[in-house]
Amino acid sequence: MTTGGRVAGRKCIMLVEDTPSHRKLYASWLEIGGYDTHVLEDERDAQRRAEDVRPDAIIVDIRLPNLSGLDVIEGLKTTETTRTIPVMALTVLDSPQDKEACLAAGADAFVTKPDHIATFLDRISGLLA
């Protein structure tokens, strides 16, 4: 599932999220923020799609049905073609251990759900800086 096309001069964000309502919410926030979005509902395609799309940043939900978001992040960060793409872990988990696990897996940022649009877009901007 892709939302919007890639427009020259605009940053592209890939969103890996299994929950339909969350996909819709975060994709709309990214579009409001002026980003092109590439949305995946199946995390098993994340590595291949990241290599094809070459997004400017990737947002990965941590609690996914088929593969842990931590495994997705580790895969992205250990593959030559995707290791430099900034990754944000987005999760309902909010303990210090959860944050530590996400950062240890290679996430560049950690955000807990739910978030507010302004805070979310600020985090994306910081991730891309």
UniProtKB/TrEMBL annotation:
<keyword id="KW-0597">Phosphoprotein</keyword>
<dbReference type="Pfam" id="PF00072">
    <property type="entry name" value="Response_reg"/>
</dbReference>
<feature type="modified residue" description="4-aspartylphosphate">
    <location>
        <position position="61"/>
    </location>
</feature>
<feature type="domain" description="Response regulatory">
    <location>
        <begin position="12"/>
        <end position="128"/>
    </location>
</feature>
<dbReference type="InterPro" id="IPR001789">
    <property type="entry name" value="Sig_transdc_resp-reg_receiver"/>
</dbReference>
<dbReference type="GO" id="GO:0000160">
    <property type="term" value="P:phosphorelay signal transduction system"/>
</dbReference>
<protein>
    <recommendedName>
        <fullName>Response regulatory domain-containing protein</fullName>
    </recommendedName>
</protein>
<dbReference type="InterPro" id="IPR011006">
    <property type="entry name" value="CheY-like_superfamily"/>
</dbReference>
<dbReference type="InterPro" id="IPR050595">
    <property type="entry name" value="Bact_response_regulator"/>
</dbReference>
